[in-house]
Design a protein that fits this description.
The protein is of the alpha+beta class. It has three domains: 6-112 and 136-162, no CATH class; 175-251, no CATH class; 258-318, Immunoglobulin-like (Sandwich). The protein is built from nine helices and 17 strands. A six-stranded antiparallel sheet has the order 12-13-14-17-15-16, with no helix packed on it. β15 and β16 form a beta hairpin. α8 (206-215) packs parallel to α9 (238-250). The two termini are 47 Å apart.
Length: 319
């Protein structure tokens, strides 16, 4: 979805027809965005000069006004159709924030007023005066409109990946693996190439790095090696593939992150269940007995003080 909330200027120009074909085979407008534009009160975002907003994509795009009821309704209807009928479930948002969410619509004149200003060539207004009080000029933020529309699309079944850091889905951003090591907690929900060779070259234990990345919800890329006809994670170590499966199992509980003192580990809690990722051996006290499963080994027990072992992943619930 490059631009994701815009149409091409060509579409907008083709909407302005004078009834003559002149060699151009126009696409039908019925049932398309062009029909919606004609019904909309304020289909485009206008800048302070009253020009259609295009960010740095001028003159290619015309950014749609997501606060307009007709635009919004059409947008959600079409994407629900693509999900349900075409079975599209993933969206990559390229240029999301510079095309929609950070924009302001400058409504130069309130559309409910009949007076909209004049020019000297309009003879019909000769002898009339500019009103003492002009209609109010409105500036509408697109931020909540953008957030709510993407939220609705997630409810309709879409998964998002963004070009930059954002609030939806995973993000395509960040430096190479080694440059992330010192700031790994910052890269939650950001994907990255894992390289066992690079980790060893930096003097690190590759599986410690892989484990900690998952603990901080960093997304390791899974590639398909065409020549070898198999999955590849940047390592041949079977533990990495096992950790990916375990992550998928505990992911639903990985909310409300707490980095433990001294970065001994990371604890998540959600709906009465906690997940503890241990980076070293330590004792974790609870107020009362809890049930736990060490997911890698399958060991289960009930304790009040959990003796966590380095590399352990503990699924914890009330006893």
């Amino acid at each position: 979805m490059w631009g994701n909330t815009a149409i091409s200027t060509l579409t907008e120009r083709f909407r302005e027809r004078d009834g003559r074909k002149k060699g151009i085979e126009f696409l039908p407008a019925e049932g398309t965005i062009m029909e919606v534009l004609n019904k909309s009160k304020s289909p485009f975002i206008r800048n302070a000069s009253n020009a259609i907003e295009a960010d740095h994509y001028t003159p290619r795009f015309c950014v749609l006004n997501l606060r307009d009821e007709e635009i919004r309704k059409y947008w959600l209807k079409q994407w629900k159709y693509f999900h349900d009928e075409v079975v599209i479930e993933g969206i990559f948002l390229d240029s999301s924030f510079n095309m929609s969410s950070d924009k302001f619509h400058h409504a130069q004149f309130d559309g409910t007023k009949s007076w909209k200003g004049v020019t000297l060539d309009q003879k019909g207004v000769t002898g009339k005066y500019r009103p003492e009080k002009e209609p109010p000029k409105l500036i509408h933020s697109q931020y909540m409109a953008h957030l709510s529309i993407v939220s609705q699309m997630q409810k309709d079944g879409y998964h998002y990946c963004g070009e930059d850091m954002g609030v939806f889905g995973i993000n395509r951003t960040g430096p190479d693996l080694i440059d992330r090591i010192a700031t790994m907690p910052l890269w939650a929900d950001c994907y990255c190439d894992f390289s066992e060779a690079d980790a060893k070259k930096a003097g690190l234990d590759p599986m410690d790095v892989f484990f900690k990345g998952l603990a901080y919800r960093m997304v390791w890329k899974i590639n398909w090696n065409i020549r070898r006809d198999k999955l590849y994670l940047g390592t041949e170590n079977p533990l990495a593939y096992k950790l990916i499966k375990i992550y998928s199992r505990v992911n639903d509980y990985m909310f409300n992150r707490e980095i433990l003192p001294g970065e001994k580990g990371v604890m998540y809690s959600h709906n009465g269940t906690s997940v503890l990722w241990a980076f070293e051996n330590f004792e974790y006290p609870f107020e009362k007995n809890v049930k736990y499963e060490e997911v890698l080994s399958g060991k289960e027990s009930s304790v009040q003080n959990l003796l966590a072992q380095k590399g352990g992943i503990y699924l914890i619930s009330n006893a």
